[in-house]
Specification:
Distance between the termini of chain C: 31 Å
Structural class of chain C: alpha/beta
Number of strands of chain C: 10
Number of domains of chain B: 1
Oligomer: heterotrimer
Shape of chain B: globular
Number of strands of chain B: 4
CATH class of chain B: Alpha Beta
Order of helices and strands of chain B: EEEHEH
Chains: A alpha/beta, B alpha+beta, C alpha/beta
CATH architecture of chain B: 2-Layer Sandwich
Helix content of chain B: 25-40%
Largest sheet of chain C: 8 strands, parallel, barrel
Number of helices of chain B: 2
Amino acid sequence: MKFTANKIGRKIPEELFEKKLIPFQGKGKGPYKVRKYAPKIRMRRPGEQKILGSIREAIKAGELTDGGTISFHHHFRNGDFLLNMVCHEIAAMGLKDIRLVPSSIQGVHKEILPYLEKGIITEINCGTSSVIADAISHGKMERLLTIRSHGGRARSIENGDVEIDIAFIAAPTVDPYGNINGVRGKNACGSLGYAFPDAHFANYVVAVTNDLVPFPNNPISISQDHVDAVVKTDKPIGDPKGIVSTTLRITRDPKNLKIAHDCVEVIKASGLLKEGFSYQSGAGGTALATTNFLRDYMKSKNIKGSFGMGGATEALVRMLEDGLFEAILDVQTFDTYAVQSLLNNPRHIEIGASQYANPQTSGCAVNLLDTIILGGTEVDLNFNVNTSTESDGRIQWGMGGHQDTAEGAKLTIIAIPLLRGRIPIVVDNVVSVNTPGENVDVVVTERGIAVNPESAFYDTLLKAKHLNIKTIEELKRIAEDLAGGPPNQPKTTDRIVAIIEYRDGSVLDVIYQVAD
Amino acid sequence: MVKFVRTAQAGSLESCDILVTITKGKEQSGVKINLESSAKKQFGDRIIAEIMEVVKKFGVTDIVISAVDKGALTYCIQARTEAAIKRAFGVDEK
Amino acid sequence: MKKEPFKEKDDRLRRTRLYIPGNHPAMIQNAEIYGADSLIFDLEDSIPLTEKDTARILVRNAIQALNFGRSEVTVRINGINTPFLEKDLEAIVPTKPDGLLLPKAETEEDILFLHERITELEKKHGLPVGKIRIMPIIETALGVVNVEKIVAAPRIAAVGIGGEDLTADIGAIRTPDGRELEYISSKIIVACAAYHIQAIDTVFADINDQEGLFQATKRAISRGFQGKSVIHPSQIEVVHRAFMPSEEEIEKAKRIVKAYRESLKKGLGAVSVDGRMIDLPIVMRAERILKRAKAGKK
């Protein structure tokens, strides 16, 4: 295999599984295609109806064959049953060599492990976690895992890098003619944003529901002119407890509270926290604490922001209700409070994955962010961030909107503890790269804050004397002093099991099979 | 020369701690260490060396050490090992 | 003030002293990140009897291996009449902590006994003699009665109050504004002040009541306490905020210190600011205010 070094020095094969790979050349490059993909024209004539009796009928109607591609959204998170149901059916039908393109794979999907081992599912495109990620790390899947960001997935579907034969959309409610929304029904999940590219660009679209409602459904997130078939089943397509949380817990760990507090101090010192401020943060314990500290500060100083983006959570919604933002743009909704808000508050706006983060459009929402707070499994001396592998080389996560928001936002903050247990989080070189250092401004840990010398905010932040500023090298040294040295390098074979794409379709890094 | 008195344990399974259990080994069996750790690949060799350092300092042998590590640092690994040895060999007891 | 042996001047800021249970490595190794002026690694009340040995070894190792930044490093050892005290001292003194907290300190003899044991151990281990301070905690009525003698003993710095135990010992009932401890607090503050020692207020147990903590700290400051013991990192910022002087106070303190220094230079006998005579205690209080202001701005 021939390799070339890409812009961040990672060695990328020129070709893999008969596909030519484009090495990452830096942010803002591309597009590498001229036109968007055009799916097949499907026609429904007056009098025809869309309801099918079973998932098997839908698979047949969508003409799925060996080697075909199917897709799913992950708005049901760890309460999703649909992906497993469809895969069981596909296996029972004797189909094989299927490419799976969900927007993420969660722990609940461990049921499909035998299908990887048997060659029924031979390729997966998305971030994976848990049992499936581990299996792929150990070489149990025939072909490649391609890890993409939310924006990258939207791009790949819209430009035809990925052609979907059947898109399965778990629909909290749908009417008999295919109008879907996510805000009502027992499986209500809020925004269905990740399913928008699937609905608009797949060659056949199937809505599967436990709640069939009368025509016309209201509101309409995904409209009937994109939906070919509707399957109503009594077998649960999701577990409400796994879909939305009733209360997401803000961290109580004083170490994470300190990190959250320092994130807000960095935002304040940057000068961005003023009228018109825009903000995105996640749903983890530390992220929620940051959102709450920010809210308290903005209220106390009467600062009115322009928009907040989510991961919509109660914490973010309360900022909207307090008048601290004009609107929330929501591509994924995490808790019941936020789902209700999406349903009832006109200033809480559902957006699709492409509108959110696809760089190859006339302008996606991440381009307008002032600041984003992100996590990671590792950071290196070049400020590259790893979100997909652990320090022992195993694939453990995807990357969500990390890459997209990091490039789009003016001020990108990585908020992480300096060690996890004994393992230093700041290292010489991360095991694999999901977000290149050129998009990262600040790393906030509990023992110090490092500013990227290439950052536009470098001079401003270094003037803030109350911030515990250290160089990234100093942070690494502190971590290694505590840990007793750097971690042992992961032991891998020379078989590539995964590639990490940049949002423009070029390849940022590859992941090798772990040697156990 | 201290003699083995009882199976003993020190530490806990809390985050950043290590639970060290010492049981009697066969005659002439030396020192056996069984390590379970969330950082085994990254630091396993060092953790075992740190435990052995304390064992050598106290000059005890013919023991089996079971260690369940939850991300402990060196100072803690060695403190728990020392405490477990002292408890197992009745050191510092009236 | 004449420099007497074992009575070196101590003007370290102790606005907050954070208790860390000595058997919890996660808390021990993160202790320094919260910015407490002083850290107390506890071997006493937070440690069950069956774990006294393991906690002792863990704290000993931690102090030797870890860096605690600018925080003072102290250990609350077990009380005089416990079977653990001797082993605590043997393990901890060689690590050179800044101070040892003695719980349930009741008599001058308690302190002298401790002082002698520490001195022996300092000599045995080749350490400079006299640097380790003794920080008594008054938790009984007898301790209150004897506090005037206790503060005169060698090595004493930072006298604390165990509010919960004291209230029980005198048969009083705890109230939200702490009035049942007013006399006791004042007695201890006066005794400490006479010997230029800091008095530290008792802990505020409700870690969710930040406003209550702020008010309690303000009351403590106005009485003359120079610090507050805290049991959770979230309390540190609140207490430091309460200790932050107002702009007015800072302004006035600057003028007092300036006037005093000028009068020294010019060899003047008396100093006056705003028409009032300034004595040494007023200057010292002004210096303390400026010190708190400087720390608060960090």
